[in-house]
Recover the amino acids of this structure.
């Protein structure tokens, strides 16, 4: 018989208030309490805490406090990663983030979900599906990524978007629900700078 943690990690319905899972969430909260309370200049100490909590961290990464997650060990981040203030990752399932990814303030990556029908929901049943984000992605302020979503590489997601479906590579997408607005082309390389009047 599978224990609740095994169910959670395999995408099956599970009881979130299982004792083992509760202890693991409490441990993550304690680590993050310390992380979020450190003096701003103690970057190395903050990074060391995250190196021991998260599943995979690169040599070059920076996460602004405050930062929140459920477990930590399900989070894998690539090189040159930056998350701005108030990033929340509900990592009940794997969250895999590629290289050169930028998260603006208040981004939420939510692998966890609850049943629509109230009876199983009231019993504490949850489910969790992985989130995957490719390389060279920028998620704007307040973006929410829902369970089971894959975002391709070289993508920009506009501020305030709620991502409910997979997003292909090389596009700008935005909205609630988030949808593709345009393909990113070589013409976009210098577009912002051409519009500046210096």
């Amino acid at each position: 018989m599978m224990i609740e943690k095994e169910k959670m990690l395999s995408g099956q319905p599970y009881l979130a208030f299982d004792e083992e899972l509760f202890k693991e969430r409490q441990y993550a909260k304690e680590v993050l309490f310390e992380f979020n309370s450190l003096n701003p200049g103690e970057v190395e100490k903050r990074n060391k805490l995250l190196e021991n909590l998260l599943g995979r961290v690169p040599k070059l990464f920076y996460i602004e406090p405050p930062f929140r997650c459920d477990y930590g060990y399900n989070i894998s981040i690539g090189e040159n990663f930056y998350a701005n203030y108030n990033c929340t990752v509900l990592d009940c399932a794997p969250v895999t983030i590629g290289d050169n990814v930028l998260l603006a303030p208040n981004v939420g990556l939510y692998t966890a979900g609850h049943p629509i029908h109230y009876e199983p929901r009231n019993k504490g049943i949850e489910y969790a599906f992985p989130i995957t984000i490719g390389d060279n992605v920028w998620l704007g302020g307040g973006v929410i990524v829902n369970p089971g979503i894959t975002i391709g590489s070289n993508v920009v997601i506009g501020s305030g978007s709620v991502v409910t479906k997979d997003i292909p590579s090389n596009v700008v997408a935005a909205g609630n629900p988030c949808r593709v607005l345009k393909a990113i082309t070589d013409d976009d390389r210098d577009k912002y700078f051409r519009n500046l009047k210096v």
Remarks:
- Helices lie at 4-9, 19-37, 43-53, 118-122, 191-195.
